[in-house]
Structures are given as C-alpha cells and as structure tokens.
Design brief:
By secondary structure, the protein is an alpha/beta fold. Helix content is about 20%, strand content about 30%. Strand 11 (about 210-215), helix 6 (about 220-230) and strand 12 form a beta-alpha-beta unit. It binds flavin-adenine dinucleotide (FAD) and FE2/S2 (inorganic) cluster.
Length: about 280
Amino acid sequence: MTVCNHSDENPFQPEAARIVRQYDLIEDHRFFQVRFLDMERAMTFTYNPGQFLMLSIPGVGEAPFSISSTPSRPGILELGIRRMGKVTEALFNKSDNDVVYIRGPYGNGFNLDQMRGKDILIVAGGLGVIPLRSILYYVLDNRDQFERLFFLYGVRTPEEMLFRTEFFQLKERHDIECLYTVDKATTEWSEDVGVVTKLFTKLPEIDPHQTNAVICGPPVMYKYVIQELLKLKLPKNQIQMTLERRMKCGLGKCGHCALDHIYTCMDGPVFTYWDTLHFRELI
Ligand SMILES: Cc1cc2nc3c(=O)[nH]c(=O)nc-3n(C[C@H](O)[C@H](O)[C@H](O)COP(=O)(O)OP(=O)(O)OC[C@H]3O[C@@H](n4cnc5c(N)ncnc54)[C@H](O)[C@@H]3O)c2cc1C
Ligand code: FES
C-alpha cells in the first residue's frame, strides 16, 4: 500500500498510524489509542467533536469510526470499537505498535459556535457515548466557554457501561452533573434504574433558549429523548444528534450514504432535530 504523509493530493490516500494502547471496555468493545507515524502530522491533525475517520487494514478493508477523543488533546486519536465483522475483527487481532491506516477527518461534527455560551445537555445511550465522549471532554477542557454541563448516560446493565471508571471519576468534579442509569440493575449498582429519559426528572430547571442538547444512542432512544427535550421547550435547531448510515467513501463521492440530495457523510453525521423533520428517513 502506498501511503502519503498528508492527504491533500489524493483524498482517498490513507496515512499510517500506530496503535499505542488498547484495552477492553466491555466484552467485544475495545478502546484504541492511535498516533500518526509522522509526529508533525500527529500534532497538527485537527477535527471537530462529532467527526469520524475511515480506518483501513491492508488486505482486509476499511470502515468508518467516530473519533472519541477531543481535539483539545492533540497527538493521540481515540476510538471505541465494537467487534462486528471483518475490519473490526482484524483490528481486534492487532497488537500495540502495529500499524493501521487512517484517512479523514470526515463529516460535519457538532455546531460548536452555536453551543458556546450555552448550557450543554449530553444524552447518550449504549454505544452512542463513543462520539459524545469527544464533545464531553471538549467542553470540560474549554470549561469557560460553556455554561452548565449535564451528562446523562443510559445502558442496559452495569456490565455494559462503557468508560465506567473514567465516567465515575467525573462525578467527583463540581463543573459537571453526571447522571447514569441502567435498565436492569445488579446489586453493586448505586445509580439510577430505568430508561435514560427517567434522568430528566433529576435535572434542575432548564432555560430552553440557553440550552443545547446533543444525543447519540440506539435508534429507539431518539424519539423518547426528543419528546423530553420538546417538553422542556428546546428549539428544534438546538437539538443535535449524530446518526449512523452505511458509508463507503466518507467524502461525498460514492453515493452510498445519500438520502435525496443529502450526503450523510458530508452533511452529517450530525443533524439537528429540525433537519430530521424535513428528512424523516434520517431517523
Ligand atoms: C459515521 C459512522 C461512525 C461510526 N462509528 C463507530 C464507532 O465509533 N465504533 C464502532 O464500533 N462502530 C462505528 N460505526 C459502525 C462501523 O463502521 C461498522 O460496524 C462497520 O461495518 C464495521 O466494519 P466491519 O468490517 O468490522 O464489519 P462488516 O463486515 O462491514 O459488517 C458486520 C455486520 O454489520 C452490518 N453493518 C455494517 N455497517 C452497518 C451499519 N452502518 N448499520 C447497520 N449494520 C451495519 C453488516 O451488514 C454486517 O452484518 C460507525 C459507522 C458510521 C457510519
Ligand atoms: S459515503 Fe460515499 S457519498 Fe457518502
């Protein structure tokens, strides 16, 4: 495979990156830290929370993955990956120091300009926390640019909670309110029990015009979370959600992700609730 250091000339040309660390989050879900071999590229590579990249393994294939790290901590890219098929299986078989190939970043990412100066409400379900972890740490690293920060995360069982240790550590901070819930508890679970929307009853008073919500989770979750946000009277364009569609090229060339004139790889993967009202197939 020919690899270039900078993807300016051929946007399909991936760049080599080394796996610097990996560990299992839960069964069949693994956390990876990767760094471009070219150190200058590693330190200058920038992206928006909510963007994704294409990761390839020579001889196996390529797949899109959300960036779970924050651009406020340059040098390392973090991914949370579920073992699904050929690319992810091959990635799970890699060792630290092995090389993979990356191109990107792609997609729009969250509208940070709209979010600055506002209260931020992050609502995650299951695996949806992977892209939201990027905006979560971005807000924490730029705390003076945002007002109150609420992080609501729901999973089916305590054993399925991703990033459990670090998210419980966040509860000790005074500049974020973290609320966690599981559908079904075991004895050692001390947080809430019930679906993620139940956590809305624990929120303090919300000023809808001062609040931006970001959502990512299983498809069924969006409808109920949006209902709660509309009850709070959040404007439809202040509800952002990140949506997955089948993607191949990631840069608007192949048409795999197209819905009408919308290319979800370029116009998304972040859409506002307002957008989805015009393109109901989006969710
Ligand atoms: C923008 C974006 C961000 C993503 N971020 C992440 C991430 O952070 N972590 C992560 O683990 N995965 C993420 N995914 C999903 C990931 O790209 C797919 O699971 C990918 O197919 C894995 O490649 P594979 O070769 O291992 O599996 P494959 O061999 O391609 O597929 C395995 C199985 O999954 C099915 N499948 C593949 N893609 C999809 C899809 N989009 N929707 C429903 N079923 C599908 C296939 O039909 C097959 O049954 C993201 C996808 C998109 C579009
Ligand atoms: S994935 Fe090819 S056009 Fe969007």
